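Input/output pair, single chain:
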Amino acid sequence: MNLTDKVIAVTGGGSGIGAAMCHRFAAENPRSLVVMDLNGSAAERTATQISESHPSLAVYSAALDVSNESELLKALDQIQARDGVIDLFVGNAGIGSGVGVEGTNDIWRSVIDVNLMAHVYAARALVPTWLERGEGYMLITASAAGLLTNLGDAPYSVTKHGAVALAEWLSVTYGHRGIGVSCLCPQGVRTPLLFPEGEADGDLSEREALALNVVRAQRILEPTEVAETVVESLRSEQFLILPHPEVHDYEVARATDRERWLATMRRIQSHLDPASGADQ
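Output:
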């Protein structure tokens, strides 16, 4: 996909991977770029920074709760009324929970709504127009957890698997009709989700701290590195975008010998869980 002269909209663009992608997309000279985030001030800050470095680019910001379908639809309608049909929609907003199956229904619903249903809402709104004109592109940010699993966070793992499955379904169902789909599955990235700003590890629950430490023990990429990989992968319209190539090897190992994979993951979990009595 050539991003030049395209209308691009990005959710979760106020920080982390989302902000890095917005900055990188701006260098491709799109027609317009819309930065959306639940934190409207963060979205505005990203947009302002981009405007300063690319003064000729039409860049906008918007506060948006992607879990609210009517709010998302309104934002998409406003973008398309002003800029024309969205060429690339990047569903990047995501949240974690740090809980297991014992998490409350409200927690489960909030993670499902942001990490999965927001992508459904966006596809529901955009796909009909894309089908009419024979082109359109959706990039869904999932996670390596959507291909493997995430120790310590059941809602995150389940919803990221769902996001990967949805991206695959959209690609299979509409790919022959001109709609492109990519699914971004990074592992550890230096973002507020992995390194919460202003929050010490001592402020986290035991499960949250354990989950974060597992990911932090892996190779950590900077958001700019992920954004560069995204642009390169979009050029070739690659479906699965893996900024950490090793995730491919993990996925192959999981698929070819699931029993061994599960045993390995259980062993890691046992060493992280004080209740197991395993040697640390």
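The mean pLDDT is 91. The chain has nine helices and seven strands.
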